[in-house]
Amino acid sequence: MKKVIKLICIFALAAMSGCGTEASKVSHNLSQQADNFNDIRQLTVINCITGDTLFQMTGKMSINADASDNQLEVIVEDEEGEYKKHFIGLSDNVTYVVEDVTGKGVNKYKYTLNFNPKMWIPINVDCID
């Protein structure tokens, strides 16, 4: 009887570990690899109304979308192995794209943050007499 119970347990464990598609396993592994700061990612934040890029970050980063706060929490690793946390507010008209750019000839430690200056300094001067 003990052998039967052991066989049932073994088959049950094998069945549970075999659940899911190959794509879901690969997706999980890629996400875990990136969240362990082993891959280079590029985060682009876009204004959906104007189509303008608000800013980009490139580097070794872990990204968590927090729906309760409407923000992205981005943790980056620099060349000294130190970590920095950034928050990016999201709204109905702001979205983001994350790309895996590992292997594209970028520095594996350095991260960059690029702002689009015309999104921050919209100066229109009108003189009214």
Summarize the structure.
The protein is an alpha+beta fold and 129 residues long.
Write the layout of secondary structure elements.
Blueprint: H1 2-17, H2 22-35, E1 41-47, E2 53-66, E3 71-77, E4 83-89, E5 94-100, E6 112-115, H3 117-120
Antiparallel strand pairs: 1-2, 1-5, 2-3, 2-6, 3-4
Q: What share of the residues does DSSP label as strand, in percent?
A: 35-45%
Rounded to an integer in angstroms, the radius of gyration calculated over CA atoms is 22 Å
Helix content: 25-40%
Mean pLDDT: 76
What overall geometry do the principal axes of the alpha carbons give?
A: elongated
Number of DSSP helices?
3
* Record field, number of beta strands: 6
* Major β-sheet profile: 6 strands, antiparallel
N- and C-termini, Cα separation: 98 Å
Q: Give the H and E element order.
A: HHEEEEEEH
Structural class of the helix and strand makeup? alpha+beta
| Low-pLDDT sequence parts | none
